[in-house]
Amino acid sequence: MLILLILKFAVMAVFLFMFWRRPSTKWGVGLLTVTSAVLLDTFLGTFNREEMMAQFGFFFYVISGLLIGGAAYWLFSVLGPLQIALTPRSELAMGTAVPPTPTPPTPSPDSVKFAPGTDEQGTAFDRQMIYEEIRDRLGREDVLDLLFDLSIQDNEVMNLQQNMQELIINLMNLTAERGQTGQLALAVERILTPPAPESLPRLEKISLESPPTILRHYLLAHYDLEKLQKTAVALGIDWEQLAVTSKKSKVRDLLHYLYRRNRIDELVNLMHANAALAKDD
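Now predict its structure.
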């Protein structure tokens, strides 16, 4: 009995790992089906099986049908590509089997070319130079900072199984569509040469209307990790749930959290209150 229980949870763990590693409908359905089947079997095994099945009545057959359907969908999704891979080339050529849709090759970094572009004011910019600066001089964290500074949502340019080059190309195309090429060029320069703390606006000048990039740079310049953690705790935010890769990611995640919940005014007020307390001390 114990061995069977361990085996059940081992199967669940395998499906959970595969869904975590490759999030998709196929593995999501498989995980839901296996989990539901294990829970149902455990529930029926805990109580009198025949009596509980009688209590479920018609719904037991509905649940069983859903589980069988989920298992069939998962099995077909897993074995479908395998069947195509094992199909002889002669059959593919005769049209008796459908070959998989070829994935377009990712262009090499040096083969990507961008035509000159303009911003909303009509000012011309060398988009190829901007692309090469991002590609050669910025890391993924820096590109995420660019998205934040330009108020671009992650899901507008990012997707699963995407490499760095594809992310940069999507960013370049979206900013061109929105006439943000000039803003992108300025944001890149700010990433490469961050403003000195003394060149940032004084705290009393920072308000709810201040651009997000000003708040981000101010927190990076004037707050260490301990002060950032105290600020998050004071705002009722779980510090451990914020990104842990770097101070930059912590600041960006904190601001994202507050902007999405229309709570950025609470941060600004807290910053002003802490500064007033420090001055009194």
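The radius of gyration is 27 Å.
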